[in-house]
Design brief:
The chain is of the alpha/beta class. It has helices at 36-46, 61-66, 71-79, 83-91, 108-113, 116-119, 139-150, 211-216, 228-238, 256-268, 274-286; strands spanning 5-10, 30-31, 34-35, 51-56, 97-101, 124-127, 131-134, 153-159, 169-177, 180-188, 199-207, 241-245, 249-252. The protein has 11 helices and 13 strands.
Length: 293
């Protein structure tokens, strides 16, 4: 069975980016000129996903507005002959997106479970908005190909520095075939000395519908939240769950430094900005900042 549906959890409060996120969803913070969540939606579409549901919370109306038609704006751009900008505005409303609210902030696992009726009895993808992946073959498409081979859940992983393993869910690999790992067990944010590997779970998942049964009965874990990694660990005891070390560059937009790095990297991808951005960075390195004295 092919994966046709995807869940994008977007109910978090974005406290790391306050005060910017007091009135704006963190998913709408722009990387250059494109909201972070649009990169995630575009990856899903380019991978062949047909239906997307975004799990939102309070104060997230701007996300729905962004992916809706903006008739007055489109008409204004058309009249002024700004066709390039018009095309960009229309692009964000070209896909049919569904929405559901997570009424309580009970964690990522609970956010995924909120979409259970939308998923039904089908395999599905989950894409987290904090991770942007740039690759020739979309990251999610790589994982969907793995699912078609294994007919089992596939978790996207990347190697991280050993000292950062306490920030992620970590896999304990059992066997390896190319980039695919059979997993012994999964651990949510282990201490640096307790991590079974440096292969971290990175924001992309393909699940069989069985995961919903475990999420429904999953007790709260670390941080008093329903942890998705804990449910994956339980799923792995009843059916295989693989880790897949996807190809591509992963950028973490979940913290301020990662957000700045991502902005610079994606600006450098653009022919109309690359030269100026390079010069700007060189000038910044040499600049004397009086407030640092």
């Amino acid at each position: 069975m092919k994966v046709k549906k995807a869940i994008i959890p977007a109910a978090g409060l974005g406290t790391r980016f306050l005060p910017a996120t007091k009135a704006m969803p963190k998913e709408m913070l722009p990387i250059v000129d494109t909201p972070t969540i649009q990169y995630i939606v575009e990856e899903a579409i380019e991978s062949g996903i047909e239906d997307i549901i975004i799990v939102t919370g309070k104060g997230k109306r701007a996300i729905e507005d962004h992916f809706d038609h903006a008739f007055e704006l489109e008409d204004n751009l058309h009249k002024k002959g700004k066709m390039d900008q018009l095309e960009k505005v229309k692009q964000s409303s070209a896909v049919d997106i569904h929405y559901i609210r997570q009424k309580e902030p009970l964690g990522l696992g609970h956010a995924v479970w909120c979409a259970r009726k939308f998923i039904g009895d089908e395999p599905f993808a989950v894409l987290l908005g904090d991770d942007i992946v740039r690759s020739k073959t979309p990251c999610l498409k790589q994982m969907m190909d793995q699912f078609e081979e294994t007919e089992a859940s596939v978790i996207g992983v990347k190697q991280v520095p050993k000292e950062h393993t306490d920030r992620y869910g970590i896999i304990a690999p059992k066997t390896r075939e190319g980039r695919r790992y059979e997993v012994e067990h999964f651990v949510e944010k282990p201490g640096v000395d307790e991590a079974p590997s440096n292969l971290a779970i990175i924001g992309r998942y393909i699940f069989t519908p069985a995961i919903m049964q475990f999420l429904e009965n999953q007790e709260t874990g670390r941080g008093g939240e329903v942890q998705l990694t804990d449910a994956i660990e339980r799923l792995n005891r009843s059916e295989p769950v693989y880790g897949y070390e996807f190809e591509g560059d992963r950028y973490d937009v979940g913290d301020k430094l990662g957000f700045i790095e991502t902005t610079l990297a994606l600006a450098m991808e653009r022919e109309d900005m690359r030269k100026e951005v390079l010069q700007m960075m060189k000038d910044m390195v040499q600049k004397d900042f009086p407030l640092m004295k």
